[in-house]
Structures are given as structure tokens and as C-alpha cells.
Design a protein that fits this description.
Strand 6, helix 6 (about 150-160) and strand 7 form a beta-alpha-beta unit. The protein has helices at about 5-25, 45-55, 55-60, 75-80, 95-100, 150-160, 175-185, 195-200, 215-220, 235-240, 240-260, 265-270, 280-290, 300-315, 335-340, and strands at about 35-40, 65-70, 85-90, 105-110, 115-120, 140, 170, 190-195, 205-210, 230-235. By secondary structure, it is α/β, with parallel strands linked by helices. The longest helix is centred in the N-terminal third of the chain and has 22 residues, at about 5-25. Helix 6 packs across helix 14 (about 300-315) and helix 11 crosses helix 15. Helix content is about 45%, strand content about 15%.
């Protein structure tokens, strides 16, 4: 008769034998050490990246990620172009901008299904504000010139007949520096992400004039769904490293699934203390405002890519819709596999 201990050992050995083929069948990563560039990691715009990092989802996929944080999306894009980053956590519209310059980069997993960017004017600096036309000649804070916050500001201004050349854009980052720039009067208005914008709004420092932190607000501003934060890289990197891109996508979709059921206390326990900007209550109020903007499954909607192209073309003369092949700016191949795996 087999003893309980012997039986347990035999069962463990059997489980290992069964598991072994699955381990051997796991695709080998073409590149396990990955440099990721991001512009403003502490913002909710990139919360899925932080969650996946903090909870070890990248490591679970066999990845060793090194994340470099820059002041804004345009700076992280420069890191990719310059060769110091393999992948960028950034705004989808950069894929369109770069294709207009005959450089092909490709989105492969979506983190945000709305831009989460709000634009507001300083209540102290512009008490007589009436329309966006009043911003002509003013200083407008953005995370970094050329970033998605800059793009939203350009869109709002262009609809009021104000050219980008008629204002001054000032890079202020996405955290404490942005709060200080607005409150000290260095800028007259700001286009930025949460938690910064909610903190300024609730303290009465800013009056919101354009808001894409909700799906409805995004529809009002853009006229359709607008994809936002994503992972993108050079198209040839995605083609040559499919297993690595799948592993990166798996980690992000795992994080997206976790966020669907996470409560406020779960978020607070997971993100670094510095992200709270000294006010837990306002941080959580900000999260509740943008929660629906987070992607559910990493898949980008084709309609959203058309919305992005239309928006960019409306104020950027360098963007010509008939010269852009949208199908080359994204792929849902990896996100769909990850969605099936995690049932996101």
C-alpha cells in the first residue's frame, strides 16, 4: 500500500511530467531584456504599464523590462528613433505622424480607449476668459511640445481659429512640476492628464474647457472613439520579435484584466507613493473619473484609427489622409491572442 507521503510525491512528479511539455512548448523570446520609454509614467494615462510592472506581470512572461520615464510622449518617441528604447508606451497618433515622415512604427497593444486629456484655463490668470480664441498670445502648458497633450491643445485652438504659432507651448511634465507651473502663473492654460488636472480642478485653480477623460467627452471632442496610450515600436522590430511582442502584450492585457475588478484600495497599495502627489483622496477621485477610459482588452478599434487620422489632418498640414495607410499603423494580432488567454 502506498503511504500518504509517497502518494503525494508521485502526484507531484506526475504533475511535473504533465507540465513539462507546456513549458517546453512556450515560444522562446527573441529578446528578453527590453528597454521601454514612457512620457509621464505617474499619470493614469499609463496606469496599465505601472500595474503590470508592479505586480510582476512582465517577469511572469520571462521579460526583464527597463522603463525610462521622460517628460512627455515626444521625448519617449525620440528615444525609440534614437535607438535607446525598443518599445514606447505612448500615444497612438505618433504612428500616424511618423508615417507622414515615411517612418513606420506600429501599435501592438492598446492601454487607453480615450485620451484622458483635459484642457483648462487658469482661473487666476484668465478670469475674463470666454472662448478658446482668448488664448491667442498666451502660454499653454503641455507635458512636452509635440506630445499628445500638445495635439489636443492644437485641436481645441484650431477650432477657434487660433494657429499653433499664435500661442507659446511650455513643457511642464505631468506631475508636481505641472501643478507648480499653473499655480505660480508661469502658464495661462494647460492641456494635461490626471491626476494633475483633477487636482487643479477640485482646488479651483483651473476651469476645464475641453475634456477627453470620459468616453462621452472624447466623442464630443473628436466625433468618434479615439485610441490613446499603447505600446508601439518600429514595424520591423514587431515583425522580427513576435514572441517578445506577444509576451509584452500578455503582460499588459493581464494588467488590464486586473484593473477591471480592482478597487480604490488596490490601486493605492500598488502604485508608488509618489504618484499620489500628496493627496490620496484626490488621486482616487481622479481615478474614478478616468476609469472607463482604460482599455478592456488591448484591442484597438479600426474606427478609432480613422478618428485619429481625421483629427490630426484637421490642424496639421503635413498630414494628408490619402497618403496614410492606417493598416500599417497597428496590429491586433497579439492583443487578440492575449484576450483569448486571459478572457479579458
Amino acid at each position: 500500500m502506498m503511504s500518504r507521503r509517497t502518494f503525494a510525491s508521485a502526484a507531484a512528479l506526475g504533475a511535473a511530467v504533465i507540465a513539462a511539455p507546456a513549458l517546453r512548448a512556450q515560444p522562446k523570446l527573441e529578446k528578453s531584456k527590453i528597454a521601454i520609454a514612457v512620457g509621464g509614467k505617474a499619470g493614469f494615462y499609463y496606469l496599465p504599464l505601472t500595474i503590470s510592472e508592479q505586480l510582476g506581470f512582465f517577469k511572469a512572461e520571462g521579460l526583464d523590462v527597463e522603463i525610462s520615464d521622460f517628460a512627455g510622449g515626444s521625448r519617449s518617441l525620440q528615444a525609440l528613433v534614437g535607438g535607446s528604447a525598443d518599445v514606447v508606451a505612448g500615444a497612438y497618433e505618433h504612428t500616424i505622424n511618423m508615417q507622414s515622415k515615411n517612418q513606420f512604427i506600429q501599435e501592438f497593444v492598446l492601454m487607453g480607449r480615450a485620451p484622458q486629456i483635459a484642457m483648462g484655463i487658469s482661473t487666476k490668470g484668465m478670469p475674463g476668459y470666454k472662448t478658446p480664441a482668448d488664448l491667442r498670445g498666451k502660454k499653454i502648458g503641455v507635458s512636452a511640445p509635440g506630445s499628445s497633450t500638445n495635439m489636443v491643445a492644437n485641436l481645441v485652438l484650431s477650432r477657434a481659429g487660433v494657429k499653433a504659432s499664435e500661442v507659446s507651448f511650455v513643457g511642464v511634465g505631468t506631475s508636481a512640476g505641472a501643478l507648480a507651473a499653473l499655480r505660480s502663473g508661469q502658464i495661462d492654460a494647460m492641456s494635461n492628464i490626471d491626476p494633475v488636472m483633477t487636482m487643479l480642478e477640485q482646488k479651483g485653480d483651473i476651469r476645464i474647457i475641453s475634456d477627453t477623460r470620459t468616453l462621452k467627452g472624447t466623442l464630443d471632442v473628436f466625433g468618434g472613439p479615439m485610441p490613446a496610450a499603447c505600446f508601439y515600436s518600429h514595424a520591423d522590430f514587431v515583425q522580427k520579435n513576435p514572441n517578445t511582442c506577444q509576451a509584452l502584450t500578455n503582460a499588459i492585457v493581464h494588467g488590464l484584466k486586473w484593473l477591471q475588478t480592482a478597487g480604490p484600495s488596490d490601486i493605492i497599495k500598488t502604485v508608488p507613493e509618489s504618484y499620489l502627489l500628496g493627496d490620496r483622496g484626490l488621486y482616487l477621485a481622479s481615478f474614478n473619473k478616468v476609469r472607463e477610459a482604460i482599455s478592456l482588452d488591448g484591442v484597438i478599434a479600426e474606427e478609432g484609427t480613422r478618428t485619429a487620422l481625421k483629427a490630426l489632418e484637421s490642424f496639421d498640414p503635413a498630414i494628408k489622409a490619402d497618403k496614410i495607410t492606417l493598416s500599417r499603423t497597428f496590429t491586433n494580432e497579439f492583443a487578440r491572442r492575449a484576450k483569448d488567454r486571459f478572457k479579458a
